[in-house]
Amino acid sequence: MRNRTGTILAFLAAAACGLMAVGCPKKPPTTTAGATTTTTETSKPPATNVPPPAEAPKGEVSTEPLAGDVAAINRAGYLKDAFFDYDKSDLRDDARSALASNAEWLKRYRSVQFLIEGHCDERGTAEYNLALGDRRANAAKEYLVSLGVDAARIKTVSYGKERPFCNANSEDCWQQNRRGHFLVTAK
Amino acid sequence: MKTLRFLPLVLVGLLLAARAAAQTPGPTPPPTGQEMVLKITKEAAGRKLPLAVPALTTPGVAAMQSKLVDPFTATLRSDLEYTGVFVIADPAHYPSGSREPTTTEAADRWLGTGAEILVDTKADVVADKVTVEARVWDLKAHQLILGRRYSGGVSYVERIAHTLANDLVKEITGKSGMFLSTIIFVSDRDGSAENSKDLYAMDFDGRSVRRLTTHHSLALNPDARNGKVVFTSYNSRFPQIWTMNADGGGAREIKTGVELNASPALSPDGTQIAFVGSAKGNPDIYVISTAGSNLRRLTTTHALEASPDWSPTGRQILYTSDATGTPQLWVMDAEGTGARRVTYSGNWNDEGAWSPDGSKIAFACRNEGDFNICVMDFATGNTVQLTSDGANGHPGWSPSGEKIVYQCKRGGKTQIYTMDANGENKRMLTETGNNLMPIWLP
Question: By the CB < 8 Å criterion, does A134 face chain B?
């Protein structure tokens, strides 16, 4: 009985969430007429460091605590990072789908608290990038909130370009460093 | 550890000029500072003023060559050349024997080296205390320009040379010398924690590096006025503004109530901090008192604002905004009104810094490729690019505005450099780890 109620509630929640997601218009791509900012660097998120999330059965709200400590949960990589274009904090399609997946998982484990770190690649100036990282982290946060994740569970921090994931001089590496990185802080 | 090196340096302004005038027949009274300034300014436009700087003499004192004579003479020559105003005539051609150019014949021997000014120094040593007597002569006019006596511990002989160099620059150019000034910067040289950065200080020439913070997280973007330093620290995971004394003591956190807390900048009177705050992902310029009260939001755009810097009068704030699509420099008055765009060329300008006299702004500029350091004449908008190698950023002015300190990344490492305000005379000051975000204190 308890299970069935849970299933129904989860179904309703998922339906509502779906409606909300549909109702959340995508921002039109920002065009910077006259500016020479290159937008050719749009690329797919790096495939590395994103292990497949351990799926709970679809449509069920878990009543069981997550196994392992916070460090183990972070190592498992349940939450996917959102990647950004150069000098942009607009959410790309791949970022939206990563965040939608995160929202599903976060609604399953409602006690989880987490941090979104905003990161930038090394090509910009340090001071501007601290503000840009703040925008990226908050863009990811706002989208999660629009998908029904309680804002009180989310903290954000910008590291600008001070905590890079890699240090190579290549677009592949720069893309790695332009991200909203998720870190579970409490389960 | 946290106290600045203290030197009981006794500076005695001898009335040597008057005495020399009384004792010798030739010299007339020294020119006033004003006349001298005009003369040097005119000369500096075409060429550098040649100086003879013979080695310190130590009559009656033996075995002080390496402890006293060499460090003093090398420091004095290096300082004076570093100004960009002087050139040192070749010491190999200096005459031997009497150095007082009180006669035409004696002065001519010095003029024959190409020098126009003689910097004559003599030391007396008693126990571990040295007294240096300096006499600076205008060789063409046979005039004593400067006569002063300095004393201190023998181990502080370089500091005595810096002090004399400062006095000489002040006397001849009218501007304060920089040879006892300090540069505060960010470095990862510790290496104990991955990607951690702390604050350090060093002399103007890169010597005597001392550590100011041990947060082992991120300490970023220092600024300083009137002996107080402000910076951003991630010591408690989330960035907060901190303040401390220039020697690293008295550190405390200033709670602002907003997020981000980046790029704090002290107002010229030291009572206010402009910084980048964020509420709900909208970075704006805020101001708060150094006591942590009276928070005000100055920009109210939906654009991204960053990197504030106060004008020397404290009436305007320079900052970066992407309101027009790319990061550009803007200026507004200190109440947040009257915002107008300042830079129009290039697709990314940031980290603006106002020159001490308010006439110029230095900033990180880019159109294509790597960032460079640009300087704009604030009244006309005329802009010159001062660097062309590596990825440059975070310019700051020397206290009198004749030098610019900045960071440059080449070959994977970021180091701190200085250059003349016209881009000449570039020197690398650091080499251990990565060193960045420098500011120059008086």
Answer: yes
C-alpha to C-alpha distance for A140 and B120, rounded to whole angstroms: 68
What is the Cα–Cα distance from B277 to B275, expressed in whole angstroms? Answer: 6
Whole-angstrom distance, CA of residue A101 vs CA of residue A141: 13
Sign of CA dihedral A43, A47, A49, A52: positive
Across the interface, whether the CB atoms of B325 and A34 are under 8 A apart is answered yes
pLDDT bracket for residue B136 (50, 70, 90): very high
Q: Rounded to an integer, what distance in angstroms lies between the CA atom of residue B21 and that of residue B211?
A: 49
Q: Rounded CA gap, B87 and A84, in Å?
A: 53
User: Max alpha carbon distance in chain B (Å)?
Assistant: 78
Task: Mutation target for A interface from B198, B216, B260: give the one with most A CBs within 10 A.
Answer: B260
Q: Is A146 on the interface with B (CB under 8 A)?
A: no
Residue B386 burial (CB count, 10 A) = 21
ipTM entry: 0.84
Tell me the pLDDT tens digit for each residue of B340-371. 999 999 999 999 999 999 999 999 999 888 99
| pLDDT tens profile A25-67 | 333 333 333 333 334 444 555 554 544 444 444 545 555 678 8
Contact B347 A126 (CB under 8 A): no
Q: Is the Cβ–Cβ distance between A180 and A82 less than 8 Å?
A: yes
| Token digits of residue B440 | 């120059």
Length of chain A: 187
A–B interface: beta-carbon pairs under 8 A: 110
User: CA A51 to CA A83: how far, in whole Å?
Assistant: 16
CB B439 within 8 A of CB B405: yes
Query: What's the Cα-to-Cα distance from B90 to each of A49, B50, B76, B313, rounded to whole Å?
Result: 62, 10, 14, 43
